[in-house]
Structure formats: structure tokens, C-alpha cells
Amino acid sequence: MKILSKIIIAICVFWTGNSFAQKKWTLDECVRHAMENNVSIKQIELDNQLANIDEKDAYGSFLPTLNASASHSWNIGLNTNITTGLLENQTTQFTSVGATAGIDLFRGLQNQNRFRRSKLAVISSQYQHLKMEEDVALNVVNAYLQILFNKENIKVQKQQFSADSLQLVRSQALVDAGMIPSGDLYDMKATLATGKQRIIQAEYALLVSKMSLAQLLQMEDFKAFDIADVEYEFQPNSIFFETPESIYQQAKQERTELKIAENNVKIAEKDVDIAKGARLPSLVGFYSFSSRVSYANVPNGLGGVMAPPPFFEQLDMFKGHNFGLQLNIPIFNGFSARNNIERTKVNLEKSRLALEQTELDLERNIYTAYADAKGALETYLATREMLKSREEAFRYTKERYENGMATAFDYNQSQTLLVNTQSDLLRTKYDYLFRTRILEFYFGIPIIPNETE
How far, in Å, CA of 273 to CA of 340, rounded? Predict the structure, then answer.
């Protein structure tokens, strides 16, 4: 245990040495930093980019296609003259060029529905991004409040340690005066050692909570991370003037997860429309241009070689155009179109059930959050009243101990109950703060107000 204590103290000293003149982060700064650097949020941002690219693909389906081609080849020996069609022993060069264009005139409204679906997918990705930001912000708030709790807990433990140190001096005087047995002095020393151990444990808990928040913020130099010393006083929250039902009705208009589920239903409906479009005829317009040029070393019978027509003259001579319309009517494709329609209808039903389940989950979560916040409030108030009783009980036990009317065991027992109640009060206060923040979040109040905390 002594070795562990030394290690923890060394870590805390190292932490303190690195945190000299360091920046103190506010809650607002922590949340905003997380929005810009959290890995999960960055991954969602990449998904947004992919959704935007898919939208461009869908828009591109309305545009005509245009492709060009060109080739050049050599034929040596006995081969067919492409121009005359005769077999000749010659070296022939052949150049061809071409271009094709096409456009969908009608494809069962699939292009239109794909474009509408792509726009819905972009909206859905934006909602996903917002949902991830909300989740990260809640995690940051929880981690931030945990650090504040640990900081205040250290203050409580140190204050109690100071009181125990003074009490040890008084106990020594009482032993010297013969008012209490010398064995009580050893109990007081054990109490002081226990208090020191509590301080070490509290400092270690603070260290861990700082590391957790720093890592959540994706900070490389997390050893030098610390937050501003802000004290949140207990205040009754106006959110309790609302009923769980009114909070739920407000959340149905605001909550991101519900908008995601609703948008997924719309996407599934477009998938059904796209699948149905495969059973309709499609009409495509097309146009192509082609031409060719050939060069052959053909003897002219006089010991010379016949010269081919010039390049551009041949291009004009051999040019050709091809255009028209192509109508495709699906008749039978192994039930693939019908099965795809049925598949999309099943997915649509699943999306509708997911929306219904999301509404039920949201309602349950809000009622649970309301009960948790209400319970946290009542627990805090009860603990605050308990602390008053513990303080009076400890004061009474302390007086009796100093007058030799109580044992060191009675003193230590009363003190332990007091310290535990002080820690419980801090814990219930920050639990109340976090629970009410969640409830406000469901009601549509931003996690971080416009003004800095």
C-alpha cells in the first residue's frame, strides 16, 4: 500500500509540475474543442461528404453522356485494303475516330426518385452529425462535472485532515493530562493516516477524471490539462415545472434521433418508388459519329506508289452518323424486379417500426430522466439534512471525547460518518446537475448556453 501511495504521489507531482501556468479550460471551451477534434465526429463528417457525392451522382443521371474514341493501327503484308476491299500485299495504316452521346429520356422515374432519395440521405447524414455532436457534448459535460466533484472532494478531505491534525495535538495534551488513555492517541494517529490515504485516493481519482476528459477531447498533451475552478451552487431548476408529458411533446418536435427515424422512412419510401420504376419501359436517345483514314503503299504499275487522299479529305469522305431511340420493355427477368419491390417494401415496414420504437424509447427515456432528476433532487435535499445532523453529532462526540467521556473509537466512527456524508452531498449535487441538464436537453435547451458558464 505504501508503494502504491508513493506512485500516486509521484504521478500527482508530475502532473502538477507540467500544469504550471497552464490553460484552464471552461466547459464551453471543452465542448467546442470536442466538436472540432473528436474522432467520431470527424468520421460522421466524412459520411456527410460521401452523401454529398452520392447526390452529385444522382444529379448526373439527368445529364447526357458523351464519350470519344480514337485508334491507329498498322497492317503489314497480305491483307485487305479497308478502303477498296481487295487483298493486297501492302503496309496499311488505319486511323479511326468516333464519338457517342446518349441521354435517358424516360426510365420509370427512377432518376428523379434517386435524386430525391439522395437529398434525403444528405439530410439524414446531417442529422447523424448533429446527433453525434449531442452525444459527445453530453459525455464532455459528464466528464467535466466529474472533475469538479473530485476537486471539491479533495478540499473536503484536506479540511478534515487539517482538523484531524489539530485533534491529534489536543489528544496528546489530553493524554499528558491523564484525561484519556494513551491507547486513544494511537487511534487518532490511525485516523490521521486514514485521512491521508483518502486524500491520495481523491487526488488519484481527480487525475483519472482529467485524463478521461482530455482523451475525450483528443488532446495529445493531456498531462498538462486542467479545467477552470468553477463552483456550481445548488439551485432549484425550473424544468420541474414541466410535466414528463409536456417535455415529451416538446422533444417530439426537437429530438434528432426522431428526425433521423422519420427521414429513414422517407428514404425507404423512395427506395420502393425506385424499385417500382424497374417494371416500367425505358427510352434512351443516342447519337454516334465515326470516320476513318487509311494509308497504304499500293504500287501503281509504273514503279511508283499510289498516294492516298489527304487526311482530312478521307475524314470527310468516310464520316458517318448514327442516331435514334431505343425502347426497352421489361417482360420477364427471373422475378428480380418483383422481388426487389417486395424487399424494399419490407425495409419500408422495418423503417416504420423503427420510427415507432424510437418514439417509444424517447418517451421512456424522458420519463426515466425525469424520475432520475427528481430522485437526484430529493436525494440531495435529504443528504443535506443528514449532513446537518452528522455535523451536530460529530461536534457533540468531539466535545465528549475532549472531556474524556467518549472513546477514540466513538470519535473516529462519528468522523467517518461525517466525511462520508460530505462526500455524498457533493456526489448527489453533481448528479443532480447532470440529471437536470439531460432533462433540459430533452426539452430543447442547448447543452451549452450562449453565454459562457
Answer: 11
Query: Residue 3 is inside which H or E element, if any?
Result: helix 2-18
On whether residue 247 sits in a domain, the answer given is yes
Helices (H), 278-335: 311-317
CB 295 within 8 A of CB 342: no
How far, in Å, CA of 267 to CA of 304, rounded?
73
Q: Can you tell me whether residue 98 is helix, strand or coil?
A: strand
Cα 416 to Cα 410: distance, rounded to the nearest angstrom: 10
Question: 59 lies in a domain?
Answer: no
Number of structural domains (the chain) is 1
Alpha-carbon Rg of the chain, whole angstroms? 40
Query: What are residue 168's phi and psi, to 5 degrees?
Result: -65, -40
Look at residues 231, 55, 217, 75 and name the one whose alpha carbon lies nearest to residue 136: 217
Contacts of 327 (CB under 8 A, 6+ apart): 281, 282, 283
DSSP bridge pairs for 305: 299
Cut 0.90: pTM above it: no
Helix (H) / strand (E) element for 68: namely strand 65-80
Sign, CA torsion 389/390/396/400: positive
Give, for 382, the enclosing helix (H) or strand (E): helix 336-402
pLDDT at 46 over 90: yes
Strand partners, 70: 97
Residue among 447, 65, 436 at smallest CA distance from 235: 436
CATH number at residue 220: 1.20.1600.10
3-state helix, strand, coil in the chain (%, to 5): 65, 15, 20
The tens digit of pLDDT for each residue in 380-414 reads 999 999 999 999 999 999 888 778 788 877 888 88
In a domain, 69, yes or no: no
C-alpha 118/C-alpha 56 separation (Å) is 8
Give pLDDT tens digits for 163-194: 888 878 877 887 777 776 777 778 778 888 88
Question: Which domain range does residue 204 map to?
Answer: 2-37+108-280+330-443
Locate 215 and state its grid cell.
Answer: 482523451
Question: Which residues, at least 6 apart from 341, have a Cβ–Cβ distance to it below 8 Å?
Answer: 272, 275, 276, 278, 279
Within a domain: 71 = no
Contact between residue 232 and residue 347 where contact means Cβ atoms under 8 Å apart:
no
